What does this fold into?
Amino acid sequence: MEIIDEAKNIVLIGLMGSGKSAIGRTIAKKLGRRFIDTDRFIERKFGKTVAEVFDQSGESTFRALEKEIIKKVSQYIGIVIATGGGVIKDLENFKYLKQSGWIIALYASPDTLYKRIAGKRIRPLLLNQEDPVKKLEEISNERKIMYAQADFQVDTENKEINDIADEIIGLLETNRQASGFDAGI
Ligand code: S3P
It folds into this structure.
């Protein structure tokens, strides 16, 4: 039997480039759970990329679609969820995700975040920014209060995806044992 509570979702939050998708996919594989990336879910459901939604309809439309999807995936049981970086800007999103399971916040320095995402998928919030690292720092400062509400905080700087996935699984197992699982409470 899986030592981590099977009913609870494992939800990854954090800034763009913090590794939510890669780490989430790895955790899901290791635990034999289903994996959902909410940005990809939005793209499949609405037939547009996140960048196209931002460009054609604006951020508020994207946030409304994101909220709809968060409500939906929060009803799933025992899955791993990688969220978009701004999901926690909406308190209700955070509440739904929290009720569905464990929330894990991933961190890295703005320099590292930028190195990881540069040249990859378009991040609308960084488009046309003269200094994208500074912009990431600003976004980080705006959001850190919300990221800090997560159940677990994990630093991803200078670590491999596989090791971070193991670290998170270890944290959840330790937590489960500490909460009386072993004693049958
Ligand atoms: C956003 C992060 C993106 C995506 C959208 C907005 C944000 O997801 O949801 O561009 O507000 O931080 P990633 O965190 O996967 O890059």
Remarks:
- The chain has one domain: 9-174.
- Residues 16, 39, 50, 84-86, 123-125 surround shikimate-3-phosphate (CB under 6 Å).
- Strands lie at 9-14, 35-37, 80-82, 101-107, 152-155.
- The domain at 9-174 is CATH 3.40.50.300 (Rossmann fold).
